[in-house]
Structures are given as C-alpha cells and as structure tokens.
From TrEMBL:
Pfam families: DHHC. The lineage of its organism: Eukaryota, Viridiplantae, Streptophyta, Embryophyta, Tracheophyta. The DHHC domain is required for palmitoyltransferase activity. Keywords: Acyltransferase, Membrane, Transferase, Transmembrane, Transmembrane helix. It comes from the Eukaryota. It catalyses: L-cysteinyl-[protein] + hexadecanoyl-CoA = S-hexadecanoyl-L-cysteinyl-[protein] + CoA. It is a multi-pass membrane protein. Residues 158-193 form the Palmitoyltransferase DHHC domain. One of its GO terms (biological process) is protein targeting to membrane. It comes from Gossypium tomentosum. This is S-acyltransferase.
C-alpha cells in the first residue's frame, strides 16, 4: 500500500511542479499556491541562488553567474538543444535497460522494440529539421517580396522601418533581439531551436515529441494491457511505473501545447500577434469606456441644468440602461485569416520556401 501512495505523491508532485512552472502566471491561478510556486521557480529560487553566491564568493562570483545567464538566456546557443537530446537519450536508455528484457513476451511482440526506436528517430529528425531550417530572414534583397506577401492591416501592423536593420518592416515581421535579424511572420523565439520558429516546424517538433514520448510510454507500460501490467509493475517494477506517470504528465502538456499551436495555425495567427491583439482589444475597451463615461457625465450635467422638464420617475430611472453598458463589442478583424485550406497551405508552405519567392530572389540577386 505504501508503494501506491508513493506513486500517487510522485504523480501529484510532478504535475504540480510542471503546471506551476508553465501556467502559474495565468490569471486563474493568481493568489493561489500555484502562482507562488511559479514565482519561486522562475524568479525566487534564482535570486536566492545569486544571494548565496554573492555571500560566499563576492561580486566576482555574482558577475560570473550573470555572464553565464546572459550567454544561456540572451544569446543563441545550443544548450537547450543538448538538454533535449540528453533527456530523450537518457529516458530511452532507462526504458531499454529496465523494460526491453521483457520484449518479446507472451503479450508483446518484438515489433515494440523497433517501434520505439522509430519513434526516437522520427522525433530527433523533426527536431533537427526544425533547428536548422530558415525561419524566413528578411533582408534588403527580399524585403519587397515579403511586403507584397503580407500587406499591412493598419490595426496591429502599420508601415514602419526596422530601426536596427534599416529596412522596411513587413507586416507580421519582428526584429528578434536574440538573433539580431528581422524574421517574416514572426511567431516567437524558441530557445529549444535557438531561433525564431515558424508554426510548421514548431508543430513538427511538438508532434515528434508527443509521438516519441507516447511510443516510449507504450513500451514502458504496455498500454494495451494497462490494468494487469500496472498492477504487476506496482508490485515488482516501480521504475517503469514511475516513468509512466512522469511521461504521462509530460504527454498531456505536450498535447496541450500542440492543440494551442494547431489553433493558431488554422486561424493564421502567430503567438506574437496573439499578444498584439490582446493589447489592441484592451486599449479599445479602455477607449470605449472612456467615451461612454464622458457621454454619461455630459448627460448627467445636461439633466441637472435642464429646467421646466418633468423629472423622470424613480422606477424608470432605476431600470434605464446605463450609457456605460451600451459600449459596442470589439471585433477582432484578422485580415490574414483566409479560411481553413489557405491558412493550412501558408503554414505548410511558407512564403520563403515557395518556388516563386526563390525565383524572384534569384532574379534580384
């Protein structure tokens, strides 16, 4: 029975830490222990570590840590790529050492060994394709092509020049401060790939990760016979069941990430544009509320200064709709959302990879 409780505690602790780290900043968790754990994991623990280093080694030690932080977090580097490969390699090694001795068995064929290796190979292949693909660098020789491909909507994108690159800034593009280049249809700078990512390759990476972890978990816990195998693992092989719980939690999180990015792909929206739309809608709401407040104030003043008119009954005044409630709804006008198939085509075949774009580029060169 103690093993069962240890397994439950392991799963709950793993889930709490992962959810706190990734989702602790959400509004729904404000004022909860999840938010406190998130602040400790993302800020507090590092600050305590810096204080400890400063107390023991002085300013020289603190400056060394800060320089390492600058290289790891503020400059393109392969550290996260190596960590990802180490996680996949270590997990697969543990699975091989602890579970492959039972394959083939009475219930499992030898195909599970090859299936897990294929999953690892596909995941790493998609990861490498993602890491070494051009995200769509905007340069002086191809900026005109991007300007024609992505027109300004004059809502969240207006005509302007990149102050760093000194070239026109196409709509949907952004200058990445970490890579020091302008990127067309900028989504976000992904540290796992060390450059700004496109939705296509970003989702290839997440698909590969989900499938890799699912297949490893399938080999680890023998999914087709879960009830019987789990009971056996609880009694005799707790390593496999602990790995299964950990990878199950990670698989759910990766599935959530994939669903989020798939929704962005199908609506032809980038992560960067999501934040831009949030800022725009928030600003519009404040503007409309300010106009409504001004109108309500003018109406009250006019009512106070009007003479000779019969006063409105208290009952009618009570049920009269406030001007603040008559604010118009804000509509998100995404001009780049041109339907399911067009959106999918733009994601699968980015502008920078199309033959027409490459032909125009070679002509201008």
């Amino acid at each position: 029975m103690s093993l069962h409780w240890a397994l439950i505690c392991h799963g709950l602790i793993t889930l709490t830490i992962v959810v706190s780290f990734l989702c602790g900043q959400w509004r729904i968790f404000q004022g909860t222990p999840i938010s406190s754990i998130h602040r400790f994991l993302t800020f507090g623990a590092y600050q305590y570590f810096l204080r400890f280093i400063g107390a023991v080694f002085g300013d020289r030690g603190t400056n060394l840590i800060l320089s390492v932080e600058y290289y790891c977090c503020d400059r393109p580097n392969p550290i996260l790529q190596l960590i990802y490969l180490a996680i996949i390699g270590t997990t697969y090694y543990i699975i091989v050492k602890t579970s492959f001795s039972y394959i083939p068995g009475y219930y499992l064929s030898e195909a599970h060994r090859y299936a897990s290796f294929l999953a690892i190979a596909v995941g790493i292949l998609l990861f490498l394709v993602t890491s070494f693909s051009d995200p769509g660098t905007v340069k002086a020789d191809n900026v005109s092509r991007y300007l024609s491909a992505y027109p300004y909507d004059n809502i969240i994108y207006t005509e302007k020049e990149c102050p760093t690159c000194k070239i026109p800034k196409p709509a949907r593009s952004k200058h990445c401060s970490l890579c020091n280049r302008c990127v067309a249809r900028f989504d976000h700078h992904c540290g796992w790939m060390a450059f700004p990512s496109l939705h296509l390759w970003d989702n290839c990476y997440w698909i590969g990760s989900c499938w890799t972890i699912e297949r490893i978990a399938n080999c680890a816990c023998f999914n087709s016979l879960a009830p019987y195998v789990v009971q056996w693992l609880l009694d005799a092989h707790n390593t496999q069941i602990l790995l299964m719980v950990f990878m199950g939690v990670v698989s759910l999180l990766l599935a959530g990430f994939f669903a989020y990015h798939a929704n962005l792909c199908l609506t032809n929206t980038t992560t960067n544009e999501t934040f831009k739309w949030q800022d725009y809608i928030s600003w519009q709401k404040k503007l409309i509320e300010a106009r409504a407040s001004t109108a309500a104030l003018k109406a009250n003043i006019a009512g106070m200064t009007t003479e000779g008119k019969p006063q409105e009954s208290k009952c009618k005044s009570f049920f009269r709709r406030s001007l603040l409630q008559d604010t118009e709804a804000i509509v998100k006008k995404n001009v780049y959302d041109k339907g399911f198939f067009h959106n999918l085509y733009e994601v699968v075949f980015p502008v920078s990879t199309r033959a027409s774009f490459l032909h125009t580029k070679s002509k201008s060169g």
